[in-house]
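Q: What does the predicted 3D structure of Mediator of RNA polymerase II transcription subunit 31 look like?
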Amino acid sequence: MNRLDDPPSLMKGRKPSFIGMNGGPETDDQQRLRFQVELEFVQCLANPNYLNFLAQRGYFKDSTFINYLKYLLYWKEPEYAKYLKYPMCLYFLDLLQYEHFRREVVNSQCTKFIDDQQILLWQHYTRRRTRLLQTAAEQTQHTNPQNNGIVQPKVP
């Protein structure tokens, strides 16, 4: 079963309900398609170069597009966020709610700086996480080496 098979049930509970092309409520297929399109778009926001692309083409000056970015904040809710592969996109979605950020991201130097900082964060996070996991594994082995790190309850 595909991870994206169950989103339509999530979509039904979300407001506002959407009108399909036939003038009635969206079908399950239309909801699934909208979910997938919005998921893909939100994840693209994790790429500072894509944000620069949108800014240079004037999307961040369009009030309709700004309202769409506000609407997409529902992705921060746990029942939707669990589908995200690139959670950094939520950080940028938050930043895009501010006019100052939308104005600055049109600058290529600003975008380059954000991109560099993002890469440094990933590198630091990966190294730090590896170090923490190694330390935890070593502590577990030292705690109870005869049980391969499995802690046995003490019986009085």
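A (community wiki): The structure tokens above were generated from the sequence. Residues 28-137 form a domain with the Arc Repressor Mutant, subunit A fold (CATH 1.10.10.1340). The mean pLDDT is 81.
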